[in-house]
Design a protein that fits this description.
Elements lengths: L1 H22 L4 H12 L6 H17 L7 E9 L7 E14 L5 E15 L3 E14 L7 E16 L6 E16 L4 E15 L3 E11 L4 E6 L2 E6 L5 E3 L1
Antiparallel strand pairs: 1-2, 2-3, 3-4, 4-5, 5-6, 6-7, 7-8, 8-9, 9-10, 10-11
Length: about 240
């Protein structure tokens, strides 16, 4: 009986390191890299999609588009030659002009379906997804474009920091009052809630939630599971603190 008890104890203790390893399969740093890839210009993220919507809004205003005007755009976009982060995406947009109670075009409904891939310093990803944005600020008296909506991505990722971490990723970014200053469309403020989930073969599932604040200086602050990161929107670089 003592021998059986010792064997049972050893089996239990030996299983603990394996269990801990399986539940900690994607670090907060890697989750932050996935978020950075979903928002930065260098990987055709939210910053690009928001800018596309604002450009279309300005174009429709300049052409005096009427209420209910519908426009569709298909874009093939690649990173610039020599870029440190490379990407290639196909995007299909649909836009609809909406009007206020005075029948003045004052907002734009933007929907997107996209697919492609990017290759950055810490992470590579092949993904597809969608976004639904409402862009207000079409009136000439408005000083900003303000975007509310949701951006989603699903696909496969591979970490370059820990090459054993490769698997599926699902990103959901719910955007609140993302503000782009006219006429240059620089992001000056806004916030989001972020969800990152997925699985890594032989390691199991992972799940992270967090918040994202756009700072107005070309960066965003990501807080995920209590860890704070600064993400540079132009490059996708992320730094702790």
């Amino acid at each position: 009986m003592l021998l059986l008890g010792a064997v049972a104890c050893n089996k239990s203790n030996n299983s603990l390191p394996v269990q801990n390893h399986l539940t900690a399969n994607v670090t907060t740093d890697e989750a932050a890299d996935i978020v950075a890839g979903s928002i930065s210009v260098s990987s055709n993220g939210v910053a690009n999609v928001a800018n596309d919507a604002a450009i279309s809004a300005a174009s429709l205003v300049s052409t005096h588009a009427k209420c209910g005007t519908i426009r569709a755009d298909t874009i093939s976009r690649q990173s610039a030659a020599g870029a440190s982060t490379t990407y290639s995406y196909n995007l299909t947009y649909n836009y609809t002009v909406a009007c206020n109670s005075d029948s003045q075009p004052d907002s734009l409904m933007s929907s997107l379906i996209y697919s492609g891939s990017f290759n950055g310093p810490n992470l590579s990803s092949s993904n597809s997804g969608s976004s639904i944005f409402t862009v207000s600020g079409l009136l000439s008296t408005a000083t900003d474009f303000v975007i509310n909506g949701e951006y989603k991505s699903t696909g496969e990722f591979k970490s370059k920091v820990d090459t054993t971490n490769a698997g599926s990723s699902n990103v959901d970014i719910k955007i609140s009052a993302l503000t782009l200053k006219k006429p240059g469309r620089a992001i000056v403020s806004g916030s989001s809630t972020v969800s990152v989930t997925g699985t890594v073969p032989k390691k199991g599932a992972y799940s992270y939630t967090g918040t994202l604040v756009f700072n107005g200086d070309g960066t965003a602050t990501l807080t995920i599971n209590g860890t704070v990161y600064k993400i540079y929107l132009a490059t996708g670089q992320r730094l702790r603190g």
